[in-house]
Amino acid sequence: MQTWWSLKWQQMRANKHSYILMAPYMLLFAVFTVLPVLVSVVLSFTYFNMLEFPKFIGWQNYTRLFLEDDVFLIALKNTLLFAVITGPISYIACFVFAWIINELSPKLRAVMTLVFYAPSISGNVYFIWLMIFSGDRYGIMNGLLLKFGFILEPIQWLKTEGYIMPIIILVQLWLSLGTGFLTFIAGLQTVDGTLYEAGAVDGIKNRWQELWYITLPSMRPQLMFGAVIQITTAFAVADVSIALAGFPSVNYAAETIVTHLIDFGTTRFEMGYASAIATVLFFIMVGTNLVVQKLLRKVGE
Amino acid sequence: MNTPFQIGSKRLNRPLRMPKKRVNRSAWGTFSLFALLTVFGAFMILPLVYAINNAFKPLDEIFIFPPTLFVRHPTMNNFIDLFNLLGNSWVPFSRYIFNTVFITGAGIIGHVLLASAAAYPLAKHHFPGKKALFSIVVLSLMFTPAVTAMPNYMIMSWLGLIDTYWAVIIPAFAYSLGLYLMKQFMEQIPDVLLEAAKIDGASEYRIFWSIVMPNVKPAWLTLIILLFQILWGSDGNGFIYSEQLKSLHFAAGQVVAGGIARSGPAAAVALILMSVPITLFVFSQSRIIETMATSGMKD
């Protein structure tokens, strides 16, 4: 008797080469990506210090996180602030600059692509911003402001609470024209040119209408992919914060969910608690991504 | 190209659109867009220009007031200082370079092979579980490695990988963005090509190796550069403790942490770090963009 399962089993046997080809990758993917997420979710309901066996404590880690941990609330606020500012701005910047660059001649286009992509590809050299925002008068920012008389003495940029967030946002934006930007450059080059001619005949009046009615709808797949990249990066601010503002930063001014996670995971070894932080971050990132994907499907409809 | 099919590039190499066929574009609009491009282009590139110039500045020029963007009397002293500085530490500078080059090289080779092998069935075969597997890969693009860092540490230590190069290299093999891009690109290979090979009696492995792989060279380059970006800038992810196994980026961090007195060598190490990936990108730009054109998410 042919059951559904035996049919599937037959199909699987017929495709055994497919599974063999995928096996090495999928094994590593399962061990280093899927399993860690599951472990994280499970551990988030336990007390675990890496020495004793994990002890089940229910929702305690989560209640502590949201009700007792003031620093986590700062971290959450900062992370959401980074995401709300750098996410949309970087996404729009990726598109706008790709769109302008696409109008250039091929040679100039290649040069400008490099100019905008260079910061994100240059091997995490964001520490050069330390030289720019150095707290003495030899840092270029203080130097310029002093020279033109805007300030009288050098500002301790990265040690002053009010300046830390804006500077990290600036550097984060500087780094954000990466994979999403390249995707848009590529996407714009594949938009069918005849659509523009047809559009001109159909009464499209200016480049803004052309952008809205032709370019954006034709690029929907790339727009969706770019959104995933930009959103995920926007929620993950940590390295730049640690490199520029220190760890921990002055009065936790630059604490993010990820730095908070690093604090509990690698300094305090409260693995259960750190897992709860990681799980919260996981759901924030994936949730936002899924919602935005739904919205982007509607572009130009 | 001596491969029979050239995927994707045809559309990209078409001549530039003729402006006269297009709708009116106001001169004011053009001007403001290009002003925008210039201003933000300057914002993007000036910090790098400043770092490059600082690398060649003599010490008295780094500490000049007001600070200057461009170097006046270029010197190689900062590089010499950098080598001396790290030469005196018990791990020679060349060792950090070797570590970074080895981690980057091994990670890239493994990733391109494994991700391509997995991408081929996902792009071209029909088998139970295909949709579910690919959905999980797409889902994994939606969170960062920070989420999995700690459980990964435990898994690494169970596997005995902590404090070896492999703790950084092996997870890089299974980097999901690479698989995603490769699969999207492979979907463009014409099915007739694969069927013809099958009729000639080629096995799936042979088809993958001698037909699919040569046809997706642009995607190799893209995977190479994306992984290069991650591994070249990696500081060991907290998995590597031994000083002699640490990466160039980690050494750079220590130079920078030396503070103001080390500004010269810090700029020199920044230049060394950034020059390699940027050069790589300059030479592979068109191929990478060709791959990214297929990266879109279909519903």
TrEMBL record, chain B:
PROSITE patterns: ABC_TM1
Cell compartments where the protein resides: Cell membrane
Mode of membrane association: Multi-pass membrane protein
Ranges that cross the membrane: 27-52, 96-120, 132-153, 165-182, 219-240, 260-283
Coiled coil residues, start to end: none
Main location: membrane
Keywords: Cell membrane, Membrane, Transmembrane, Transmembrane helix, Transport
InterPro entries: MetI-like (IPR000515), MetI-like_sf (IPR035906)
Alphabetized Pfam families for the sequence: BPD_transp_1
Cell membrane keyword on record: yes
Segments forming domain ABC transmembrane type-1: 97-284
Family: Belongs to the binding-protein-dependent transport system permease family.
Protein name, UniProt field: ABC transporter permease subunit
Species of origin: Paenibacillus phytohabitans
